Protein backbone atom coordinates (compact mmCIF):
# COMPACT_ATOMS: atom_id res chain seq x y z
CA UNK A 1 0.00 0.00 0.00
CA UNK A 2 1.37 3.38 -0.95
CA UNK A 3 1.05 6.49 1.21
CA UNK A 4 1.37 10.17 0.37
CA UNK A 5 3.84 12.39 2.20
CA UNK A 6 1.04 13.65 4.47
CA UNK A 7 -0.18 10.12 5.28
CA UNK A 8 3.39 8.97 5.92
CA UNK A 9 3.97 11.90 8.29
CA UNK A 10 0.85 10.93 10.25
CA UNK A 11 1.84 7.23 10.22
CA UNK A 12 5.34 7.98 11.54
CA UNK A 13 4.22 10.85 13.83
CA UNK A 14 6.66 13.32 12.28
CA UNK A 15 6.22 16.45 10.19
CA UNK A 16 5.77 16.48 6.42
CA UNK A 17 8.98 18.51 6.13
CA UNK A 18 10.88 15.74 7.90
CA UNK A 19 9.38 13.11 5.58
CA UNK A 20 10.44 15.11 2.53
CA UNK A 21 13.95 15.51 3.97
CA UNK A 22 14.19 11.75 4.56
CA UNK A 23 13.06 11.10 0.99
CA UNK A 24 15.58 13.53 -0.48
CA UNK A 25 18.39 12.06 1.65
CA UNK A 26 17.27 8.59 0.43
CA UNK A 27 16.58 7.31 3.93
CA UNK A 28 12.98 6.59 2.87
CA UNK A 29 12.35 4.95 -0.49
CA UNK A 30 9.70 6.74 -2.53
CA UNK A 31 8.32 6.91 -6.06
CA UNK A 32 7.59 10.21 -7.76
CA UNK A 33 4.57 9.93 -10.05
CA UNK A 34 5.01 13.36 -11.62
CA UNK A 35 2.87 15.12 -9.03
CA UNK A 36 3.71 13.71 -5.64
CA UNK A 37 5.89 11.22 -3.79
CA UNK A 38 4.39 7.84 -2.97
CA UNK A 39 5.91 5.85 -0.15
CA UNK A 40 5.49 2.09 0.30
CA UNK A 41 4.23 1.50 3.83
CA UNK A 42 5.77 -1.99 4.06
CA UNK A 43 9.31 -0.59 4.31
CA UNK A 44 8.59 0.51 7.90
CA UNK A 45 7.59 -2.94 9.18
CA UNK A 46 11.15 -3.99 10.03
CA UNK A 47 11.76 -0.72 11.85
CA UNK A 48 8.62 -1.11 13.98
CA UNK A 49 9.48 -4.74 14.76
CA UNK A 50 12.94 -3.70 15.95
CA UNK A 51 11.46 -0.91 18.08
CA UNK A 52 9.10 -3.39 19.74
CA UNK A 53 11.99 -5.80 20.32
CA UNK A 54 14.06 -3.07 22.01
CA UNK A 55 11.08 -1.98 24.13
CA UNK A 56 10.70 -5.55 25.38
CA UNK A 57 14.43 -5.79 26.09
CA UNK A 58 14.42 -2.52 28.05
CA UNK A 59 11.34 -3.61 29.98
CA UNK A 60 13.07 -6.89 30.85
CA UNK A 61 16.19 -5.07 32.05
CA UNK A 62 14.17 -2.60 34.13
CA UNK A 63 12.16 -5.40 35.76
CA UNK A 64 15.25 -7.40 36.69
CA UNK A 65 15.79 -7.30 40.46
CA UNK A 66 18.89 -5.55 41.74
CA UNK A 67 21.27 -8.17 43.19
CA UNK A 68 22.36 -7.82 46.78
CA UNK A 69 25.80 -6.38 47.26
CA UNK A 70 28.10 -9.05 48.71
CA UNK A 71 30.06 -6.39 50.58
CA UNK A 72 27.12 -5.32 52.74
CA UNK A 73 27.35 -6.91 56.18
CA UNK A 74 24.45 -7.46 58.50
CA UNK A 75 25.26 -5.35 61.55
CA UNK A 76 22.76 -7.03 63.92
Structure in words:
The protein has 76 residues and is α+β, with helices and mostly antiparallel strands. The chain has one domain: Molybdopterin biosynthesis moea protein, domain 2 (Alpha-Beta Complex). 47% of the residues lie in helices and 12% in strands. The chain has 3 helices and 3 strands; from the N terminus they run E-H-H-E-E-H. The protein has helices spanning 5-12, 16-24, 45-63, and strands at 2-3, 30-32, 37-40. It has a 3-stranded antiparallel sheet. Helix 1 (5-12) crosses helix 2 (16-24). The radius of gyration is 22 Å and the shape is rod-shaped. The protein starts with a strand and ends in a 13-residue tail after the last helix. The mean pLDDT is 89. It holds the Pfam family HTH_17. InterPro entries: HTH_17, SinI_DNA-bd, Tn1545/Tn916_Xis. Residues 2-48 form the Helix-turn-helix domain. This is Excisionase family DNA binding protein. It comes from Anoxybacillus andreesenii.
List keywords for this structure.
about 80 residues; alpha+beta; Molybdopterin biosynthesis moea protein, domain 2; 3 helices; about 45% helix; rod-shaped
Please outline the helices and strands.
Elements: E1 2-3, H1 5-12, H2 16-24, E2 30-32, E3 37-40, H3 45-63
Antiparallel strand pairs: 1-3, 2-3
Helix pairs in contact: 1-2
CATH topology heading? Molybdopterin biosynthesis moea protein, domain 2
* Second CATH tier, the architecture: Alpha-Beta Complex
Span between N and C termini?
A: 68 Å
Class by SSE composition: alpha+beta
Q: What's the pLDDT, averaged over the residues? A: 89
Which residues form runs of ≥5 with pLDDT under 50?
none
Tally of DSSP β-strands: 3
Annotation field: number of helices: 3
Largest beta-sheet details: 3 strands, antiparallel
State the strand order across the main sheet.
1-3-2
Describe the global form.
Answer: rod-shaped
What proportion of the residues form beta strands (DSSP E)?
A: 5-15%
Number of domains: 1
Domain Helix-turn-helix: 2-48
Pfam families: HTH_17
Protein name: Excisionase family DNA binding protein
Organism: Anoxybacillus andreesenii
Amino acid sequence: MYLTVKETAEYLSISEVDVRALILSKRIRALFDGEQYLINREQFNTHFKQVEKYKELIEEILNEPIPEDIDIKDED
